[in-house]
# Entry
Amino acid sequence: MRLVSTCAVPDGSRLGRDLPAPPGGAPLLRAGAVIADSEREFLFHKGVSQVYVEDEIGAGIEIPEPLSEGTRRQARAAVSRAFRDATRMPGTLLPHDCLDELTAAARTIVDEIGAVGDRAFAFPDLAGPEDYNLEHSIDATVVGLLVGRRLIDSDELVELGTGLFIQDIGKLALPPHLVHKPGPLAPAERELMMQHPLLGLEFLRDDDLGFGPRSVVRSHHERWDGSGYPNGISREQISPLARIAAAADVFDAVTSERWYATAEPQAVGVETIRAGAGTAFDPEVADAFCDVIAPHPAGSEIELADGRRGVVVSVPDDAVRAPLVRMLDSGEEIDLAREPALPVQPIRSSAAPTTVSASIS
# Structure
C-alpha cells in the first residue's frame, strides 16, 4: 500500500484504506473500490487530496496505525456531537454529559497510545477540509501523546491527552460560518478566531478539569519566543503540557487539508517543528518530536538527490531518517541507512516553508 496524490492515482487502482466516515455514516469510499474518473471527480469535489492505493508498486508495504478505527469512530462522534449541540446550549457552560463524552473519548485514546510501541507511524490526511476540525482533534492528540511519552510521567499523559482533545473547544462559541469558512480569514475574523483559547476556558467549570488540561486549552497557541496568543507569554511561563500541545497542533495543521492550505507531506510537518526549535517551540519538545515522528513514513513517496523517485517500504524504529526505499521506475530497493550520500525530499505540493510563530489552526 502507498500514499498517492488524488490527481496522480493511476486508473484502475484499488483504494487501500477506507476514507474517514462521518459520525454514524458510511465511509466516503471503502477499501477495495476501483478508482476511475468518476471516483476521482468525487474525491476532488470532497477536497480529498491524497489516498492510499493498493498496486504493484506498493505491494507488501504495511502502514502501522497508532489508533484503532473503533476508537476513531468514538472520538469523531464525541467531537461531532459537541459541535452540533453547541448551537442549542443554554449559556456558555458545556453540559456535563457532553464533557463526559469528550473526556471518555480522550482517555480511550490515551490508553491505546500507551499500549503501542515505538514505531514510525504515518499521519496522512485522508479527509477533505470540511472535516478538518473533527480529524484535527484526534490526530493532534495522538501526535502529542507519542511525543509526551518521552517527556512527562505516565499519569500526566491523561491530562495532556484530555487537553489536546478539547483544545479547540472554544470554537464552539464562534459562528459556524467562521469556523468552517472556505477561505482565509479577514483581519477582523482572525482577531475573533484568536479568542478561541479563552472562549474554551469559559465552557469549563473550575471543577471540570485540573490545571493541566486547562493550560493546554488556554496556551496551545502560545510560542516559546512570546509571539503567540492569547497572552503572548513565553518559555517557562507556558505550561509543559501546552508546550507539547503547541508542536502537535502545528504539525497536524500543516499536514492537514484546510480550506486555505493544502496538506503538506509529513516531512514538511517535521521540518516545521525542527525549524521552529528555540523560537516557536520549546527546544526540548522539538528534539523529542523529531526523535519520535518519522519525516518519511512507510507508504510515502520521496525523491532522491539524483531525481529518482521512490516509495518508502519501511522505517527502522530507531532510525526515523533512514528508510528502506523502493524505486518507482525499477523496483530496486535501497537502504538509505547505508547510502548517506543520497539525501531525500518529499514529493510536495508547495515550495514555501511554513510559518508557525503565531499560526491559527
Summary: The chain has three domains: 2-54, 69-292, 301-346. The longest strand covers residues 309-314. Residues 349-354 have pLDDT under 50 and may be disordered. Strands lie at 2-5, 14-15, 50-54, 301-304, 309-314, 324-327, 333-335, 344-346.
